[in-house]
Write a structure and sequence with these properties.
Length: 199
């Protein structure tokens, strides 16, 4: 890697960090390119060398997060995953390493396209896992797996934002993941205790 490549990576990382911190502090609408450049300690011209506008930088922030998440999920043996907690735990651990970036995305800052991109990517991965698992066990799902995957991801996204914004000390990752997995396996009827009521 050349010195120029390293400089580019450092500048882009600085712009990402500046963007995230300013948006979390002032809201997406209140942040302009000059604010981001100043927070990153670069000039406006340098900003425009790397990104067309703040929307392009926002897309870049999301692409980096999703790329890292895909890399972490790459070792998954999808046939053996099912409703186990490993993929969910990896999502939570990744979010714990970059809480501000995930807060920005999960809050739907901007027009919410970062949140939509995360939900779509995670839903597609979940659907593929469920479909491969169903084929491996020769079972026929009772509900469209696209609906199952979207519901599963919706629960995770909502709980993940709650977890990230919980006051310290946060609940343990393994405990939260185990709860989500049990909810997926047994359903809300079991989770709320109504299965113990006799008719």
């Amino acid at each position: 890697m050349t010195n120029e490549d390293r400089r580019t990576l450092r500048t882009r990382a600085a712009l990402r960090a500046a963007f995230v911190s300013r948006v979390l502090a002032d809201g997406y609408a209140g942040v302009r390119v000059e604010h981001i450049a100043a927070a990153a300690d670069v000039g406006r011209a340098t900003f425009y060398t790397h990104f067309r506008d703040k929307e392009a930088l926002y897309d870049h922030v999301v692409e980096v997060v999703l790329g890292e998440l895909r890399e972490r999920m790459a070792p998954v043996d999808r046939e053996g995953v099912g409703f186990t907690g490993w993929p969910v735990a990896e999502l939570f651990r990744h979010a714990a390493e970059q809480p501000d970036v995930y807060r920005l995305i999960l809050r739907g800052e901007g027009d919410g396209r970062g949140l939509r991109a995360l939900v779509e990517a995670w839903t597609e991965a979940a659907h593929d896992i469920f479909a491969e698992r169903a084929r491996a066990h020769r079972i026929r799902p009772r509900v469209d797996l696209r609906v199952v995957a979207r519901a599963w991801v919706g629960e995770q996204v909502s709980v993940l934002l709650w977890w990230l914004e919980s006051p310290a000390p946060r609940p343990d990752v393994e405990q939260v993941v185990e709860t989500l997995v049990e909810l997926s396996r047994r359903g809300r009827y079991w989770a709320t205790g109504f299965d113990s009521i006799s008719d």
